[in-house]
Amino acid sequence: MGYIIGIPLLVIVAILQTTVFADIHFFDGRPDMLMLTVIGWGIAGGDRQAMVWGFIGGLLLDSFSGLPLGSSAISLTLIALFVSIYARRVWEANLLMPLGITLVATLLYHTLALGWLFALGRAIDLPFSYSRVILPSTILNLLLILPVYQLMLGLYQRIYPAEVEI
Q: Each residue of 53-103: pLDDT tens digit?
């Protein structure tokens, strides 16, 4: 059931990220809504599904961007794997976990994107990239993860209600 709702949701989020959220920027950084959706779903409890969501969402992002096909898919799948490893171990009583995971995931995602561009032979100005793109994107992602997580948690609880014993 998570995939039936998730795939159309990913298409909508990818379109919104490349259109509406592309106009929301802080310096040259923009929010990574698809990555936040994958993180939110993984923390909400769909950690195994989040890897599939990350792969499909990454392919959608790659179709809209200048990166090679599969680069965002690999990056988002690795981020979902990271979420699945840590979310179950320390999430239960820690409100700051979505912020910590988002911080690490954003840095990993953008560093991998720079690595892909470097592998393609493009010139990269690392100080500019980190100060004008990655750091502002990280700030925007940290501001948006808690509302996105709450939306994903609500969706997860609606799709997979808790079992009640009688």
A: 999 999 999 998 877 888 999 999 999 999 988 776 655 557 788 899 999
- DSSP letters of 116-137? HHHHTT----HHHIIIIIIHHH
Dist CA 27 CA 158 (whole Å):
37
117: left (phi over 0), alpha (psi -120 to 50) or beta: alpha
Report how far residue 70's alpha carbon sits from residue 60's, in angstroms, rounded to the nearest whole number.
9
Spatial separation of the C-alpha atoms in residues 63 and 69, rounded to whole Å: 7
Measured at the CA of 67, the angle between CA 63 and CA 68, to 5 degrees, comes to: 80
Coil, helix or strand at residue 29: strand
Indicate the pTM of the whole model.
Answer: 0.91
